[in-house]
């Protein structure tokens, strides 16, 4: 865990710029050389409710946002009451109200936001006034702050600059006694871009040659739809918003059949509608990417919160037996990397590739390298243009189950691709011997998948006797809280399961699994492949992610 981490949270009703103010704060901190991890919460409301944006930052490497806060800003009175457990005795709580008599922890400071907003003459600059207070307390450079405020708010730059300066001057006059405690040395920014997980995957999709994307908006995957739509002209991507998820999946399958490098994005409820297309891609051998960003279910569940409860659903998606790949990025860099890898694997294996993220990773931001400047990495697989006589699209005597195929329109390259079992030409069949050969042909792809898919990664003490096993977005909180006597194994390919994982696990005396679900689904998955009996399971399923402090408290007791 980084030794010097500060956390700031802004809270208030939707419609008052909680997210835009929080993102601007993260950009300002990155410009001063800090490493940033942020996290936002919001109900499924356009106006009102209780929204928060939290930024944790350090001049050291940081892997996850922290739970305990240094500064808390209540844009409207009383919102601080939702966060009492996050306060320490040193937390500064700013709100436009009289200090409560029953506050048991934290230092309550009156910040007359309504009066200050009226001085500026605009009712929507609460957040920028708070940024001025933060800039003063943390010795941030006003020139850097002013430049970024002007860039973000553009034609409203003057009003927001006035609000920022008003907040800065008010803090200088009233909060000078608290300024020294917030001094942190600054670095040169090495990773200068603020990106969330959806944007990171989007850049990977672009750099992997993705040129067709279809999605029906569904929180928390919608950010990728918006991101790629903004980039479609510059990067020559066709982005479609159809009438539902069934249409999205089938459009993308048709596009990939026609030669596109394509995919779809959704969450659990939308993916339920796409499951038939997963199966269709399996039998037609169409290499297509499915990007699933999990939220709590069942049904609508909690639409704007996080969960890791879809792992078994995704691994077992689509009826029948056919090969599929399930990847699980653990951070923003891996979201980018797997955006590329998913398209390449889909092309090389000619089968569905599913990327399983969640709200916590997809909608939380971090300072990243500039992925737009990364080189492209495009592997097209076995596309051919010079066809042999008597061309067999689904040739079954290939060593790894992957047959060559032409793009539609290639002379003498006609073949059938439909949902029926078929022979080597693609003609429908119910012959038992042919059906068995085609099934075995497809399943051979698993051997190639095990060679090509991202391998599990081991972190921590090489001499440890205790091993944590987890996957996905829990990576950051685990790395941020990893005790000295522990190692951590991150499963990055959830399917197919690499048999070498069993050998790694066998070297440790005590095994602990950590998951954001209630039934230990990774444990169930590993048990299905080999003898696996973890000593402890740390599970959480209330829509919130793990924080380093709570994991530290649990792990030191094991």
Describe the structure.
Helix content is 35%, strand content 19%. The protein is of the alpha/beta class and 558 residues long. It has 3 domains: 186 residues, Pyruvate-ferredoxin Oxidoreductase, domain 3, CATH 3.40.920; 180 residues, Rossmann fold, CATH 3.40.50; 100 residues, 3-Layer(aba) Sandwich (Rossmann fold). Strands 9-8-10-11-13-12-18 form a 7-stranded mixed sheet, sandwiched between helices. Helix 15 links the parallel strand 16 and strand 17. Helix 4 runs antiparallel to helix 5 and helix 8 packs parallel to helix 9. The radius of gyration is 26 Å and the shape is globular. The protein starts with a strand and ends with a helix.
Keywords:
single chain, 558 residues, alpha/beta, Pyruvate-ferredoxin Oxidoreductase, domain 3, Rossmann fold, 3 domains, seven-stranded mixed sheet, six-stranded mixed sheet, 18 helices, 35% helix, globular
């Amino acid at each position: 865990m980084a030794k010097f981490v500060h956390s700031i949270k802004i809270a208030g009703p939707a419609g008052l710029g909680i997210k835009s103010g929080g993102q601007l704060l993260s950009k300002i901190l990155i410009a001063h050389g800090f490493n940033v991890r942020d996290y936002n919460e919001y109900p499924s409301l356009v106006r009102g409710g209780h929204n928060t944006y939290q930024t944790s930052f350090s001049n050291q490497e940081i892997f996850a946002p922290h739970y305990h806060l240094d500064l808390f800003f209540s844009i409207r009175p009383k919102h601080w009451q939702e966060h009492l457990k996050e306060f320490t005795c040193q937390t500064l709580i700013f709100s436009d109200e009289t200090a409560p008599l029953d506050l048991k922890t934290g230092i309550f400071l009156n910040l007359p936001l309504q009066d200050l907003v009226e001085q500026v003459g605009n009712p929507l600059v609460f957040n920028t006034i708070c940024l001025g207070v933060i800039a003063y307390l943390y010795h941030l450079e006003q020139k850097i702050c002013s430049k970024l405020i002007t860039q973000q708010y553009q034609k409203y730059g003057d009003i927001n600059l006035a609000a920022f300066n008003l907040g800065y001057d008010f803090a200088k006059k009233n909060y000078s006694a608290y300024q020294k405690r917030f001094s942190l040395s600054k670095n040169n920014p090495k990773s200068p871009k603020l990106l969330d997980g959806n944007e990171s995957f989007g850049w990977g999709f672009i750099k992997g040659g993705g040129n067709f994307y279809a999605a029906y908006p569904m929180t928390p995957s919608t950010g990728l739809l918006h991101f790629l739509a903004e980039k479609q002209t510059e990067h020559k991507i066709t982005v479609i918003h159809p009438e539902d998820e069934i249409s999205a999946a089938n459009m993308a399958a048709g596009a990939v059949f026609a030669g596109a490098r394509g995919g779809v994005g959704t969450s659990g409820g939308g993916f339920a509608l796409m499951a038939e297309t997963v199966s269709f891609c399996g039998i037609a051998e169409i290499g297509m990417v499915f990007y699933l960003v999990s939220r709590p279910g069942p049904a609508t569940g909690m639409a704007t919160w996080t969960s890791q409860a879809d792992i078994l659903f995704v691994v077992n998606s689509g009826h029948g037996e056919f090969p599929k790949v399930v990847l699980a990025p653990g951070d923003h860099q891996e979201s980018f990397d797997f955006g590329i890898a998913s398209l390449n694997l889909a092309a090389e294996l000619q089968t569905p590739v599913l990327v399983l993220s969640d709200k916590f990773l997809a909608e939380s931001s971090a300072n990243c390298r500039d992925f737009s400047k990364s080189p492209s990495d495009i592997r097209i697989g076995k596309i051919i243009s010079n066809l042999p006589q008597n061309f067999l699209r689904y040739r079954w005597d290939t060593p790894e189950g992957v047959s060559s195929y032409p793009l539609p329109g290639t002379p003498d390259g006609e073949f059938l691709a439909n949902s029926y079992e078929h022979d080597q030409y693609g003609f429908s069949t119910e012959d038992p011997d042919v059906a068995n050969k085609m099934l075995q042909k497809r399943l051979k792809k698993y051997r190639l998948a095990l060679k090509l898919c991202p391998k599990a990664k081991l972190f921590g003490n090489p001499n440890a006797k205790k091993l944590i096993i987890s996957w996905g977005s829990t990576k950051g909180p685990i790395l941020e809280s990893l005790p000295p006597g522990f190692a951590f194994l991150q499963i990055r390919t959830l399917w197919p399961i690499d048999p070498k994982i069993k050998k790694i696990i066998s070297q440790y005396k005590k095994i602990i699994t950590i998951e954001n679900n209630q039934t230990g689904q990774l444990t169930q998955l590993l048990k299905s492949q080999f003898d696996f009996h973890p000593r402890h399971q740390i599970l959480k399923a209330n829509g919130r992610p793990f924080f380093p402090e709570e994991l530290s408290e649990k792990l030191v007791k094991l």
